Input
Amino acid sequence: MILTPRQHDHSGDAELLEELRAGPFRVTHKHYTHDFAQGYHEHESGSIDFILEGGGRGIYAGREIVSHAGMVEFFREEIRHKFIGGGGGIRTMHVLVPRDVLIGIEQLRDIAISTLTHSRALRLSLALLHELSCPDRSSSLEAESLIHELIDEVTRAAAGPNPRAGWVGTVRAVLDETHDRHVSLDELSHVAGVNRAHLARVFKTKLGVSVGQYQRAVRTHHAAQRLAVQGASIARVARETGFADQAHLTRVFRDHFGTTPSIYRKCLRRR
Output
């Protein structure tokens, strides 16, 4: 079922902009007012949320989550939580995942909340947003397929090895924190306490990418966050996130997310 854009959903000061039914899933595009706030409550379904504009702060099962544009988040059903929107409100694509779908996935039984940071999750979310916004007779089928792929992203993250453990986690943390400057393999080797060859081999075995590829991915994600929440030009974002120029960022961004920085920004900010 597809609703006419800008149909009002008066529950919780939300405006329902678009809706799509895809198999057992319901995909919605909603805008919440600047003064939107919820007390503690629970939902019968789980959800995958793609923040398109604005943000806010929530408490989920006692854990504080700060949401901002460009984030993709998974929330289990029946999680006690509350949420307060930011000053500019928040606009979000919600994917409601029925409880009977989630309880059949053993790897997710102990996962309450997960932030999907892999490039593939954002790529899938952008594709799903397109099906929601520009539907045709194949959109329900394609959307259902994309949602199952997103759920698989949550599952893979939950079932995979812990990349934060040991010196690999230490190296990863250094790369996460130093995305805006050059880091040498000698520096990482010193931090990890292992020789360079061992570091390069084990890091790639554990994470599936080389040290340099990992740092480039981190920088690309920071660029995506900057493009989502700030008004800086693409050229400036490229420069401040360590790319040679706008063309360089555009090439890498397209490889990671399947779209260009300018189209990505337009997707998030359209009304």
About this structure: The beta strands are 7-9, 14-22, 25-32, 46-60, 63-68, 72-75, 81-97, 113-115. The CA atoms of residues 164 and 218 lie 15 Å apart.
